[in-house]
Amino acid sequence: MAKEKIFSDVGEKEVTRAIVEGFSKTFNEYVDSDVIIVGGGPSGLMAGKELAKSGIKTLIIERNNYLGGGFWIGGYLMNKITVRAPGQKVLDELGVPYEKVTEGLYMTNGPHACSKLIAAACDAGVMIINMTKFDDIVIREKNRVAGAVINWTPVSALPREITCVDPVALESKIVVDATGHDACVVAKLEERGLIKTKGFGAMWVERSEDLVVEYTGEAHPGLVVMGMAVSTVYGLPRMGPTFGAMLLSGKKGAEVVKEKLKKK
Ligand code: 48H
Predict the structure, then answer these.
(1) pTM for the full model?
(2) Does 61 sit in the ligand 1 pocket, CB within 6 Å?
(3) Which domains does the chain have, with CATH numbers?
(4) Closest C-alpha to 170, from 133, 121, 213, 225
(5) Is 253 in the pocket of ligand 1 (CB under 6 A)?
(6) Pocket test for ligand 1, best of 66, 179, 203 (most atoms within 8 A of CB)
């Protein structure tokens, strides 16, 4: 007697069509978004979650095939994530278990914290495109940032002689630079003499985290900066392997974006 089949009769062509059509539909819809967040690290994911939760059409573009940036492995190749108070309140919100190390310092496991944050952003309705590298800015009247020029990461990674492939552009009301130390979006404004960045300063955790949250905001019309990119833009001290400011900067950045969208 023939064994009963476990799986359906769906073949390769249906699988391929599902992927191509599904991606095209999403991509087509998000060619025009309210907000494009460049960078899917802790600050970008946090902001994306908050924005999408408020019904704002939010797209995260991430150059890697994974999300989370530096949030998987906190520091020194040891996957413990620390947050200084009040960062643990965000861990509570995300349902991430943690331990108290000492008064004002909390510790959790990177994979657990990062996967919960990614899931929260996805649950809130953020659209995510991976393996997509931010390449340049779209500029409109009065040098307002109005979108992102992107290309597939493998195309950007190969020498020009063998990948002479033009990028495409996405439009949005606001662009967010959440690309970490390199502040890649701001760098494109700087290349054109539209902004001057200072580069992040030496480590001084007690100062750094408050300042990063304080300076999170619009760095140029249409461009909001959050996370470690804030330190790079304003020359603030770095904080080392602790993430409270990244999470709170993402939250504050989302509030700034919401205010900007109200005025548009
Ligand atoms: C698409 C890009 C591009 C690009 C980069 O580095 P991240 O984790 O950034 P933050 O700011 O959310 O968090 C910083 C934190 O991880 C950290 O490094 C800390 C606290 N350091 C302290 C210190 O003293 O050093 O994530 C940025 C994300 C990554 O996933 C990148 O792959 C992505 O942005 N990205 N995506 N196009 N051109 N550049």
Answers:
(1) 0.97
(2) yes
(3) 33-75+119-262 (3.50.50.60)
(4) 133
(5) no
(6) 179
Q: Report d(CA 151, CA 166) in Å as an integer.
A: 8
CA of 180 to the centre of ligand 1 (A): 3
pLDDT tens digits for range 170-191: 999 999 999 999 999 999 999 9
Tokens of residue 239, six digits: 């904080």
CA dist 160 and 212 (Å) reads: 37
Question: pLDDT tens digits for 84-140?
Answer: 999 999 999 999 999 999 999 999 999 999 999 999 999 999 999 999 999 999 999
The amino acid that residue 218 corresponds to is E
* Ligand 1 pocket residue status of 222, Cβ below 6 Å: no
Question: Ligand 1 in contact with 81 (CB < 6 A)?
Answer: no
In this structure, what token pair is assigned to residue 116?
A: 């919960």
